[in-house]
Here is the input.
Amino acid sequence: MSSWRSKDILQKPEWSLQRALYKSMGYSDYDLSRPLIGIANSWARTVPGHYNLNHVSEYVKQGIFQAGGTPVEFGVIAACDGIAQGHDGMHYILPTRDLVANDIEMIIGAHRLDAVVLLASCDKMVPGMLMAAARLDIPAIMVVGGPMEGGCEFDGRAADMTSVTEALGMLKAGKISQEEYDKLEDCAGPSCGSCAFLGTANTMCCIAEALGMTLPGAGTIPATHAGRLRAAQASGRRIVEMVHEGLTARQIINQKGLENAIRLSTAIGGSTNAALHMPAIAYEAGLEIDTDLFEELNRTTPHVARMYPAAAPNVPDFHAAGGVQATMKQILPLLHQDAMTVNGKTIADNVAKAEIKNPDIIRTLADPWDKQGGLAFLRGNLAPNTGITKPAAIHPSMRTFTGKAHCFDCEEDANQAILDGKVQEGEVVVIRYEGPKGGPGMREMYIAMKLLYGRGLALKTALVTDGRFSGTNNGCFVGHVSPEAAEGGPLAIVQDGDLITIDIPNRKLELHVSDEEIQARLAKWKRPEPKFKRGYLALYSRLAESADKGAIIRHELE
Here is the structure.
């Protein structure tokens, strides 16, 4: 048996059929004598963050050829969270994560490829690919497409895609003109790339680097920079070396690497969606990351780097300031310094020469923006298992809030009510039946929060949901409430006018209703009919676990 997986099915004469099939596509004996390196390319003309991946892939191929390997490229689906926002399309977004992981597993398994380069940039494709790498445990390296450049100036900062939604609220409130709004549509996104703010896409690209699955510094190089292509070529060379070294994914995606990645995510104020994806990646590696560990790491990791939505700078600004490597150097005393990375070096080795280039974005461990990290996990009678919020994006004055519930059973109804001016100061907007099962697919309540901001209610209202949020949301919000309403969680029985308290410092989410009244209401509650009765979403709603478990789909045999 060869140490190369592909050689097991390419030896003459028994495996000449397989050789002939490769040769029918133009591969030569020379090509088939080298390691076959899969390129899982999620290029698409439907997703700005993936629009450049075909170009990036060409440089990956160059690197593979240079190092003595043969690239074997295949396609992987990609969907855009932004384009799916605010309508039925968002039901499909989180479920694509598992399809991406499954697709890569199927191709690598069917073709016995020796290694894989993972090309993605956006919200569910990056974690889906990391899940596949952990599941397969073969040599794997992540290559991201890079963040989008910032756009024209708007509302005191470089515009990005969130500016358009915020501006809609401003337009409806009469704060800007139709002409100003129309101009913003043309200049908010000046280039391809993952959206310029620190949303889930860029959070997961930073996490991939902190985990050690990208080359150092490669997680945040802007999509339009030549350095992005050089990093792709270097990654192609490195993956062939990893095959010869026997360096596989689970030597990197292990407990040390996962904990380092979580600390980095909270140190930069990353997306709440990290709390969905990190448990799912851990699960594929045969490990468990629970909410208690997440909370411990968040409480003990200072917030040292700020980007939008916590501050005006964007991710390209963060990259210029020193990026992930400079941030990890600041929190190095808190990290597992001996954690291995794809370049064959430890985290400590990689960050040794990193430096802060802009202290207005990245601060030192001794002088952080906040003593605790970016996420907080709340519990209480409204969230017996947990709810998640992001204090890094919440004004200090809003980290404790009590208001009257204004309840909606779906996102669309809430959005329309906000646009129509029916949501008032002092209310807690409750959006339920949007969890993994009830949604299904756990839609993002991104638009609702941006509309509140645009109407001037961001510091006067709050939002609680069993759905989730974009990494760019700010205001006072709690998502991932578990158990979700569709599973009979207390969120299902909240009534208009009930008082709700969000207490982030004390990690509480409380409904001001007696336990007896909660139980009486639950006794009368009836489970709603499934929204989808056929197709993959119907299957997903039956299989997906709750948000506090990462909305994973378990696949091991008992």
Notes: The chain is about 35% helix and 15% strand. The chain has a mean pLDDT of 95. Residues 376-549 form a domain with the Glucose Oxidase; domain 1 fold (CATH 3.50.30.80). The first helix runs from residue 16 to 23.
